[in-house]
Structures are given as C-alpha cells and as structure tokens.
Amino acid sequence: MTASRIFLFFCLSFITGIFISSMLGFSAGSRVYLLLPGLILGILLISVFWRYKTLAVIGFCILFLVAGIWRHQIVELKIANNELRKFNELNEKISLIGIISNESDIREKSQKLTIKIQEVIQNENVSRFVNGKALITTHRYPEYQYGDKLKITGKLESPTEDIDGFNYQDYLKKDGIYSIMSWPEIELIEREKYIGPSYLIYGKILGFKNKLRESIYQNLSPPQSSILGAMVLGDKRKLSEDLKTKLKIAGVRHITAISGLHVTILTSILMTILIGLGLWRQQAFWFSIILMTLFIIMTGLQPSAIRAGIMGGLFLLGQYLGRMSVSSRSIVLAAALMLFQNPLLLRLDVGFQLSFFAMMGIIYLMPFFQDWLRFIPWKNPKSVLSMTLSAYLFTLPILIYNFGYISLVAPITNVLIIPLLPFIMLSGFIFGLAGIIFQPLGWVLSWPAWGLLTYLTKIVNWLSGFPLASLTIENLHWIWLIISYLILGFITWRLQKSQKLKFLQY
Question: Following CA atoms 332, 338, 342, 345 in sequence, which dihedral angle do they give, to the nearest 10 degrees?
C-alpha cells in the first residue's frame, strides 16, 4: 500500500466522519459515547498492532473518522452559541450596525443584503459589539452597494425551515447566516466603507461585473440575455419562471447556475477543444487556467464558483500531467480541506456535491464511454460527449435527491447543448467587454452569441415539450443516495477490473 493511497483513505475517513455527523444529528450527550469509543479503538489498533500495517492504517482511519465527527460538532456548537441568534424572536425592535459584505441580491420588487454585524443596539441605550451575519430583505429602492455601512432597525427572526418544500434555514446556514430581518428601517451611515484591501479589491470587481451586466442586457434581448447573464455572471434574477421550468424539465437547469457541474464540464471541454485545435498540453493547460480564473472573477468571486474552480483546476492539473489518479486524489484532498474549513458544505451545499461527483464521474467513467463510442470517428466530439455523459451519470443521484425529479430527455439535451457552452460564454465575454468600451461594437459582436443562445432555447423548448419528459420523485431518504453511489462505485470498479483484464490478455 503506497503512501498516497494511505493518505487518500485518511481523507475519505475524515469526510465520512463529517457525513455521519451531518446525517445522524447527534445530541450533545451522545457525542461523548460516539467519539470516545472510536478514539480508544483507533489508538488501541495503532499502538498494539503497529507492526501490522493494515491494522495500523485502519486505526488511523478510525481516528480521522472521529476527527470528522468532532469537527462538524464543533461548528454546530458554534452555531448554537452564536451571539446574534440570541436576539432572534425577541418580538421587539433592535438596531444593527454593520457593513454589506456581499453583492446585493436585487429582485424585481426587493433586494436582499448580507450584513456583517459590528454592533447591536437594544432599547436605544444598551450597545453590544457582536460578530455575525444577517440577511436583510428591503425595498427595491434606494439601492445599496457592497461596502455600505448601514443602521438597520427592525425585528430579528430565525429563517423559516420550509418554504414550499425548500429548507431556507439550511440554505442560509451553510453561509453562516442564522438571522434575518424583513422590511426594516434603514439609515445609510457611510457609502462604500471598505475596511481593508480585500474589501476594496472585491468592490472594484463587483463594479466591473455591474458594467459587464449592463453591456449584456443592452446588446441582447430576453430570453437570450437572461440565460447568458445567469451563465457568465450568476445573475438569475431575469430568468422567467416559465424558462426555469423548461430548463428543469429538459435537464439543463445547471447551466444557469455557477455550480461545480457547470465549471467542471466547462473546463474539461475547454481543455479538450484547445488540444484538438493543435495546442500543446502545457499551452492548453495554462490557457484554460487563465480563462477559468477570469470566469470566476467575472462572477464576482462567488464562494461556490471559487470552490468549483479549485476542483476544476486540480482536474486540469491531472490532465496536464497525464495522470488522472493524481487528479482524483488531489480532488479528495481539496474536498477534505474545504470541509475542514466549513463542514456544513457536505450536506447543505448542492454545488459542492455536484462539483465533487462530476469530477469523479469524468475521471473514472470517461475512458469507458470513449471506448463504447469508438464508432464516432471525430476525436473531439467523442471526448465532449463522453465527458458530458460521465458527469451527468455521476451527478444524477444528487440531482434527484435534492430537486425531486428526473429528466428523461436530459442526456439528449446535454449532448446537444453542453459542447456549445465554451463558445457561448467566450462570445458573451467578448461582446460584453466590447460593449463596455463602445456600445455599437458590442451590439455587432453579440450576433454569434445570439445565434448560439437562440439554438439553445429552441432545443430546450422542443425537448421540454415532450410528453413524459420528466418524472417527479419526492421525499427520498438519504439512504437511497448512499445505495445509489455504492452501486455506481461497484459498477465503476467492475469496469476498471475488466479493462485491466483486457489489457493483460491483449
């Protein structure tokens, strides 16, 4: 057993510990009964059976599993003791002083502001310095910007657990938000108060993103502009409900979200296309990394895009080195480090789940799809098709479990649309940037993007209109998710074993 394989088992054990703690939800009393026996057993195996390598490795794996449970419990304990939460449900008005710490989420009739709280004023005379974040829902106007310092007066509440089947509380929880306030009185204390270099840089990035958004919406009409805005900027506010439903039925809703699946497929296809165009592997790698970095910056450095970008970069590194085993182990290590920083991502962040399993699907299943599709004479289309099917198959259980439906036309829709994503996004960036400099030039250069997006909408409209295009599957237990991935893992293992036997016999 190699050192890298042993380290892989340690990382997987840590992730498993976080998963167990996330799904079973242990009480404070049961933590000791669970952690202590595991700790004792792990130390016993290491100390007594040190000469037996396998048993010693199992002992370390148990310790890492316990560490995963412990890390998740520590975060849950911090949430329970969060200072700002203590002001929830007081049924009296309090004042919060803080700074807008994220890009404002502007809707048709409202805007949502994420506030980093600095001070809480209760009864107009008792002031407390409190750390925490709150989500504020207020009127559409006046608009507030990232970095604005505000005084907000209203009633602080806990997020609602269930809104039409969606757990809003968990959705905010992963981002460290446990308190909300709706329609409060707001007083602007200071405009764009940047409290450090990182705030200043991020503010400038968001300013550029707003200019790019304006350029896209000026030069394209809906629904093409709304789809492109969601794809390249993560701006989903202009997507109509009808279009969202059609994208969902067609199985390509993921293209309008800055998710791991989106970035994974995009970077993989980009690398394949660049190599197919005649670039050396090294040149294609660096060009892909630069474009992916620019893409993440254009989205406003959204945390989901950053996480997906890290995994996408590690995958590209494996392709660059020509060793996908390096890529898979690096991705597991990156996942373990991300979960150490925020263990809540494993259960509550669908984007994190999609990015991880899309990567694994491409790494382990893509070679088999390429072999099965060997009748396709063109190398690049075959690679893109194999990549798309591999990512989709490995993320399918996650999509069904989280969204409660399965699109029966999704494989066809993805095959017809996904290969065009890099060209749509690249043409979108080109005309968007040109439109910032000179608006008429942006309009002329927007024609290729308009043609590609028109093709995309036609495909979505056509396939989403099929009878039985999708099935609803609701209220699945998480055990079903485990069983699905155990079956997928077993099938992948058998395929790899048969591939090795073919190689040896050959």
Answer: -60
Class of domain 84-190: mainly beta
- Three-state secondary-structure class, residue 240: coil
Closest CA to 84 of 171, 186, 156: 156
CB 338 within 8 A of CB 307: yes
* pLDDT tens, position by position, 97-145: 988 888 888 877 888 899 988 888 877 666 677 778 899 999 988 888 8
Q: How far is CA 239 from CA 118, 199, 221, 277, in A?
A: 35, 29, 12, 34
3-state class (DSSP) for residue 227 = helix
Question: CB of 327 within 8 A of CB of 317?
Answer: yes
Cβ neighbours for 177, distance < 8 A, ≥ 6 positions apart: 114, 133, 134, 135, 159
Of residues 347, 350, 355, 351, the one with CA closest to residue 76? 347
d(CA 74, CA 342): 11
363: tokens are 């790494």
Q: Does the CA dihedral 89-95-98-103 come out positive or negative?
A: positive
Q: Rounded CA gap, 206 and 199, in Å?
A: 10
Cα–Cα nearest to 428, from 297, 298, 257: 298
Instruction: Pick the closest to residue 212 from 430, 505, 370 (CA basis).
Output: 430
Q: Are 157 and 89 in contact (CB under 8 A)?
A: yes
Structure tokens at 489: 């893992």
Kindly give the parts of the chain with pLDDT less than 50.
Answer: 503-504, 506
Please indicate, yes or no, whether the overall pTM of this predicted structure exceeds 0.85: no
- For the chain, the structural domain boundaries read 3-80, 84-190, 210-475, 477-506
Which residues have C-beta within 8 Å of that of residue 400, sequence separation ≥ 6?
A: 406, 473, 476
**What is the C-alpha to C-alpha distance for residues 256 and 238, in angstroms, rounded to an integer?**
11
